[in-house]
Specification:
This protein is α/β, with parallel strands linked by helices and 341 residues long. The protein has a single domain, classed as 3-Layer(aba) Sandwich (Rossmann fold). The chain has a four-stranded parallel beta sheet, sandwiched between helices. Strand 1, helix 2 and strand 2 form a beta-alpha-beta unit. Helix 5 crosses helix 9 and helix 7 crosses helix 9. The longest helix is centred in the first third of the chain and has 22 residues.
Length: 341
């Protein structure tokens, strides 16, 4: 089931879907669409989500959290034979992440103040002593969401776990890092760094790095994510737990830009514009070891992930440069800002 939102699927159902797959065009906020999709189903992967940088806060909760409550409501009301639900949560539930202070130990800092970002002071500081912090791999034990998206995803988790336990419907929440790979819609402004950098490079334009380009992220291959989803659906040890689904290593934005340039066959250095997205985290790198205890690990290195995406993009028609349009929208909403450097 997919809503086929025009900004993601302007041409309707993707051509790569096998012909034997039943397709339901529907909205997870609508009871009748859920009821139609759930006929004869004993396992649900609830991956539908609303993602954006725009300040339409209520939409995050309607699509991500309310839809989850509606799913469980229908299962209970109709006494459907659903045996397990696997849900898409997000690394965003961790907010600014996990750090170590030389004086105060492990801390989970709040988001960086607007005044600090305007001065182009990018690194996270200790909330107690204001000294710079060392980032640590994020484990599943602490959550501190600070965006509408992250808060809606944690709300989704709480609804799934508590309703699931109460009514005997096992649930598993998957806290994905940045998922990358072929078929990632290049029409969707939120679909990520690989799309933005690849399209600019193929148009002989420099990829634009926000802040100073040294923010760290981890990226995970979509095929590895699919394996993780199937694993937790089939393994009862995963029931009522949240797992990071993370990549192999931390990568800076500048390093990513250079990997993308090589994959595109371009010798173009990234552009450091001094702009930043208000609300972004500085360093967000998750640990995959809890899921590793069930037998999973990220297998595909980032260089291969980017190369596969670039190869796929080259086969697609209408490779427009969508960056300028989405950047203009973010500036108008005061999300993309210029620092004082």
């Amino acid at each position: 089931m997919d809503s086929l939102q025009e900004r993601v699927h302007p041409r309707g159902w993707p051509s790569y879907l096998p012909s034997q797959v039943e397709r339901v065009q529907g909205d997870v906020r609508q009871r009748e669409d859920w009821e139609k999709a759930l006929e004869g189903v004993d396992g649900v992967f609830h991956l539908a989500a609303y993602q954006d940088y725009m300040p339409d806060f209520s939409t995050f909760f309607h699509v991500n959290a309310v839809s989850t409550a509606l799913l469980f409501e229908i299962i209970v009301e109709k006494r459907l034979p659903v045996q397990k639900v696997v849900l898409a949560s997000s690394q965003a539930v961790y907010g600014e992440g996990k750090y170590r202070c030389a004086r105060d130990g492990v801390v989970y800092p709040p988001s960086r103040p607007a005044e600090q970002l305007a001065r182009a002071e990018w690194e996270v500081r200790c909330p107690q002593c204001q000294e710079p912090l060392e980032h640590l791999p994020i484990t599943e034990d602490q959550v501190h969401p600070h965006t509408a998206y992250g808060i809606s995803k944690y709300t989704l988790e709480m609804a799934a776990f508590e309703l699931g336990r109460k009514y005997g419907i096992p649930a598993v929440c998957m806290r994905y890092s940045i998922v990358q790979g072929p078929r990632n819609s290049f029409y969707n402004a939120y679909s990520g760094i690989c799309r933005i950098f690849t399209l600019r490079l193929l148009h002989d334009q420099a990829p634009v790095c926000y802040e100073d380009g040294n923010s760290l992220r981890d990226y995970v291959y979509v095929g590895d994510v699919a394996r993780a989803n199937v694993l937790v659906m089939e393994d009862p040890r995963a029931d009522y737990r949240a797992f990071n689904v993370a990549g192999q290593r931390a990568t800076s934005v500048v390093e990513y830009a250079r990997i993308a340039a090589r994959a595109c066959g371009r010798q173009i250095e990234p552009l450091l514009s001094g702009e930043y997205r208000f609300g972004d985290t500085r360093h967000t790198v998750s640990s995959w070891h809890a899921l590793g205890e069930l037998g999973w690990r990220p297998e595909v290195p980032l260089e291969q992930v980017v190369a596969e995406y670039v190869h796929w993009v080259r086969t697609q028609p209408d490779l427009g440069d969508f960056y300028a349009r989405s950047a203009a929208r973010m500036r108008e909403a005061d999300i993309l800002r210029q620092s004082g450097t």
